Amino acid sequence: MSTNAQTQKSSDAAADPSSTFYSFWTQWMEQSARGTQAVLEVMQAAGDPQQFQRHWVDAVARSIDDFMRTPVFMEAMRQNLKVATDLKRMQDQAVQDTARQFGQPLAADITGLFERLNSTERTIVARLQAIEDRLKALETKLARHQRPAIAGRRAGGPTRRPSILN
Fold it and tell me: How far is it, in rounded angstroms, from Cα 98 to Cα 53?
């Protein structure tokens, strides 16, 4: 009879696929719930989730740092940087050649012109300041010579012309 009962169960499962499907998903959900419960218990035993995250981020950072220090990665970076600088140099050369062909100024030309104009402006300002200083000195000297002459005129004394060159 036991073979008869097993045969009957097999034929029932074959006859009803929905019960097989239901049975599979029920078992899967139970196992998933047990696995989730186990993970939660481990997480609670491990302590603070932020501390766990910090440890994980530190491990990832060490891993990336170790990878970036490998000779293969460093060589790849060197080659990439060399290609990038070579391309930039070729681009600059092409721009310069094109600008010269069309007679257009380059940024370096304009910068040089700006520097020359700036230098000229500073020279002119310095010379104007020197002229202004000399003018103030002459005005001060003239004012000192005019005071005694004005005082002498008031007193009825002789008038004399002040000499700026004294």
Answer: 56
Between CA 98 and CA 121 the distance in angstroms is 32
Number of other residues whose CB lies within 10 A of the CB of residue 152: 13
Intra-chain end-to-end CA distance of the chain, in Å: 147
Interatomic CA distance for residues 79 and 70, integer angstroms: 14
pTM over 0.85: no
Residue bearing tokens 């499962």: 13
Tens digit of each residue's pLDDT, the chain (166 residues): 445 555 555 555 556 777 887 888 888 888 888 888 888 777 776 667 777 788 889 999 999 999 999 999 999 999 999 999 999 999 999 999 999 899 888 888 888 888 999 999 999 999 999 999 999 999 999 988 887 666 556 555 555 555 555 4
Exposure string of 96-115, with b = 16+ CB inside 10 Å and e = fewer, is: eeeeeeeeeeeeeeeeeeee
Enumerate the domain spans of the chain. Answer: 49-104, 107-155
